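Exam revision sheet. Question 4 asks you to relate a sequence to its structure. Input first:
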Amino acid sequence: MLTIRHLDVFRGRTHVLRDVSLEIGRGEIVALIGANGAGKTTTLRTVSGLLPARNGEISFAPREGGEVLDLTRTPAEAIVAAGVCHCPEGRGVFSRLSVHENLLMGAYLRDDRQDIRRDMEQVCAMFPILAARRNQPAGNLSGGEQMMLAIGRALMGRPRLLILDEPSLGLAPLVVEAIFQHLARINREGVTILLVEQNAVVALELAHRAYVLENGRVVMSGESAALAGDDNIRKAYLGG
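Answer key, structure tokens:
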């Protein structure tokens, strides 16, 4: 579904991503792991059209056998319309808008009102707390509730590829476990997931495959179980 080839990205004069290549198959969960500053968030923001690529290509095939888009030459709003929805680091909810209004923002490119209403019901069934808090300002929610809202807002865009940046950040372990159970369910229902996660343990438990970024380069990749059993990965990212 997504193919990145020889991607170079600069932020100012800093060369953040260096010749990054990776692939995500349809229906997979793929994790990017690495230390702070390795280039994980920059990778996601470039896929979403929020940062320009200096070199390389990002190919996205939302439908099997359909049109292939070069995301490096596609505006961010068109990338969303093609089926790439991004949950940013820090969740990025609109704090003064209600929970209901935040969810509607996820469907801003859609005009199929009946389907929007049906999707809203499905999101609220997945996250009942959002239905209970639908009229409250999103800024009044707890961190875990805001993460649920950010995921629900992305689902309102009917993603084919869901991108998540640090969904466990600042959350209690039990909340993280619940969030990742929801992500597994979303994947089983047909959504491909690209995940950046500082907590490499939970990332490798959820993902089918993973890539390790160091200083803007992919230094290792493979099946998650194999990476979790690698001595170097355990010492660097898994605490032992």
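Marking note for examiners. The CA atoms of residues 83 and 159 lie 4 Å apart.
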